[in-house]
Design goal:
Layout: E1 16-18, E2 25-27, E3 29-32, H1 43-55, E4 60-62, H2 73-85, E5 94-99, H3 114-128, E6 133-138, H4 147-159, E7 163-169, H5 173-185, E8 192-196, H6 208-214, E9 218-222, H7 258-273, H8 278-287, E10 294-297, H9 302-309, H10 319-329
Parallel strand pairs: 3-4, 3-10, 4-5, 5-6, 6-7, 7-8, 8-9, 9-10
Antiparallel strand pairs: 1-2
Helix pairs in contact: 1-2, 4-5, 7-10
Length: 331
């Protein structure tokens, strides 16, 4: 049976926000394919999650060349899912990808050189079967490649029609400023900046987030739930099939510290008083900042994704609630 997207996917509760100073609207909640969409994962579940996201107004799907495992398999799986279900809906989707981390062996499969980025985007386009990416990121500043080389490559990628917009991810403030300046001068302004941001990791608040806003760049958070630490999943130990229990997971057991579990438990109590899960409150807490365009959520099931989408039912905080959150985080 051919998949037919819901006719009312834009009439639901999804909210959209202009990305920085651009005219591009992004959903407040985007779907990331970092975990659970690789070759080691259940393809049918991955398909169902992407369908459910699209049916509920999620138009932005976030990839990278090395997502898997194995590296590249998330893009390949997305390409297959797109070909089998979304051929007629490309113009209703924002698909982003990135390059800059280790992808293949040898001297040219890692880093932010022109050689790596050009090879990577060509490979990513082949894996996904797309003619272009809506957003293409430099995935990191590698500490070696001159910023000018990396950013000129992004400019050329846009001019070659391989991407409509570009973004930066995980750049230190000094290099980020260089990137913003160079992109602006070339008439290809940085559409969006992607960084880790959550209640347990607030490093971007001091300099990175204000800098992006000053250059008109949108801002999107990855790992908004701290790889699951900002959910109720670990409040009573390590579940058997959780990320922390998986050998292929990014979250390590030693990161599930008693201190973080204790804070999560107190935050969970507040969330329940608000009529939300801890995960929903943690996402809402990020989105309260006007400079934030979107958050990237991961999911391992349709049910989990659906619960995350219900975050939008309650995005408001009282000043007392915000102070209570600060008190808990600063303990």
């Amino acid at each position: 049976m051919t998949y037919q997207p819901s006719d009312d996917r834009y009439n639901g509760k999804m909210q959209y926000k202009l990305c920085g100073n651009s005219g591009l609207l992004l959903p407040r909640i985007s779907l990331g394919l970092w975990h659970n969409f690789g070759s080691v994962d259940d393809f049918d579940v991955a398909t169902d999650m992407i369908k459910h996201a699209f049916d509920n107004g999620v138009t932005h799907f976030d990839l990278a060349n090395n997502y898997g495992p194995v590296p590249g398999s998330a893009e390949s799986n997305f390409g297959r899912i797109f070909k089998e279900n979304f051929q007629g809906y490309r113009d209703e989707m924002i698909v982003s990808s990135k390059a800059g981390h280790l992808m293949w062996p040898g001297p040219y499969g890692d880093g932010s050189s022109r050689k790596n980025l050009m090879a990577s985007i060509n490979q990513s386009l082949r894996r996904t079967g797309l003619e272009y990416f809506d957003i293409f990121y430099t995935h990191r500043y590698d500490g070696v490649t001159p910023v000018e080389e990396t950013i000129q490559t992004l400019i050329d990628i846009v001019k070659q029609g391989k991407a409509l917009y570009v973004g930066i991810s995980k750049y230190p403030p000094q290099q980020a400023k260089q990137a913003y300046e160079m992109l602006k001068s070339a008439g290809v302004p940085c559409l969006i900046s992607q960084y880790c941001y959550n209640m347990f990791n607030r490093a971007v608040e001091a300099e990175t987030l204000p800098l992006a806003a000053s250059y008109g760049s949108g801002f999107i958070s990855f790992s908004p739930l701290a790889q699951g630490l900002l959910t109720d999943k670990y409040l009573k130990g390590i579940p058997e099939h959780s990320r922390a229990a998986r050998s292929t997971g990014y979250l390590q057991l030693d990161q599930v510290t008693p201190e973080k579990v204790q804070k999560a438990a107190k935050l969970n109590e507040l969330a329940l008083r608000r009529g939300q899960s801890l995960a929903q409150m943690a996402l809402a807490w990020i989105l309260k900042d006007e400079r934030m365009t979107s958050v990237i959520v991961g999911a391992s099931s349709v049910e989990q994704l659906s619960a995350n989408l219900r975050t939008l039912d309650n995005l408001e905080f009282t000043s007392e609630e915000l102070q209570e959150i600060e008190n808990i985080l600063n303990e």
